[in-house]
Amino acid sequence: RADVGLYRAKQAGRNRTVLESSRQLPLAVELREAIDRGALDVQYQPIVTLGEAGAKAVGVEALLRWSSHAQPEVTTEGLIRVAEEYDLIADLDELVLRRACADAARLQETFAQLDLTLNVNVSGLELAQAEYADRVAGILADSGWPADQLVLEVTESELAAESETAIANLHKLRERGVRIAIDDFGTGYSSLSRLATLPSDILKVDQSFVASIRSDSPAPPLLGVIAALSKSLDLQVIAEGVETEYQAAVLTELGFALAQGYHYSDSQPVTELINDLNERSGLVGASSEPSTNGW
Ligand code: C2E
Ligand code: MG
Ligand code: MG
Ligand code: MG
């Protein structure tokens, strides 16, 4: 795999990617140790409803963070790529899933009025491992997090790899009640016929489409197409990267029901998210009682 995008350097005021493969090995070694020590962080970004009733959190997406390493300029995507290249991804994704199930249980306990869904990203490489679905089932059993409140997100481009094992895993997971989201949808060139047969429940529309919603230009036509498509295929759809009220309004108009983005909240450690949701009790429903258990 090419390591484009691994490092992000600011040059001439814009983000630029540079190739520095010689720095991958030390990073992989450091990452291996961090995984073994559990010294990685997971943050959570709310997924909210769009529409007249106002934004209400219905779930969170778990996102890997690694603050304490020697190369802070490496992006999360870069870390994932190193983990994939050095065969660390299975352990990394398992660590995130275990941590996320425990943190989600804390959130669910604090906000009992919420029917919280937990979204966790999974590498396409992982999904193609024969024992993957069983491993997920084991982690759910250990943690007690309900399968039908878990969504696994895999990117459209990784699903395009057409692995039979991956498809079999998706079927097994869905039989257990786990839902599957196709992440970064619209950038992976799936054919419509393939999309209709993929074992999936949710489309997450890539941020680039949302970013192109601007008040000074017409709404990108593909967004309406994706909204209609998801309806006819009976898939839920989530708009990612919503940063402005204007974008939220346009998406609502186009028929989108769910959104995620800085306009609502950035990702945060679970303790901060709990505090934040307590302060913004509208996000979790009016009946929210402030948490008193000291988290
Ligand atoms: P993703 O799953 O598509 O996650 C959404 C990304 O958009 C996240 O970047 C999030 O921080 C960012 N984001 C959220 N709201 C906004 C917004 O309003 N505007 C903009 N511009 N960005 C926003 P992040 O955290 O850097 O993660 C990058 C990617 O790394 C993720 O993309 C996902 O594919 C992957 N990833 C993250 N955590 C894991 C993990 O635990 N395992 C695996 N396999 N992949 C992961
Ligand atoms: Mg995702
Ligand atoms: Mg995405
Ligand atoms: Mg992405």
From TrEMBL:
Signal peptide: none annotated. Keywords: Membrane, Transmembrane, Transmembrane helix. It comes from the Bacteria. Residues 24-281 form the EAL domain. Residues 284-295 are annotated as: Disordered. Coiled coil: none annotated. GO terms for molecular function: cyclic-guanylate-specific phosphodiesterase activity. This is Bifunctional diguanylate cyclase/phosphodiesterase. The lineage of its organism: Bacteria, Bacillati, Actinomycetota, Actinomycetes, Mycobacteriales.
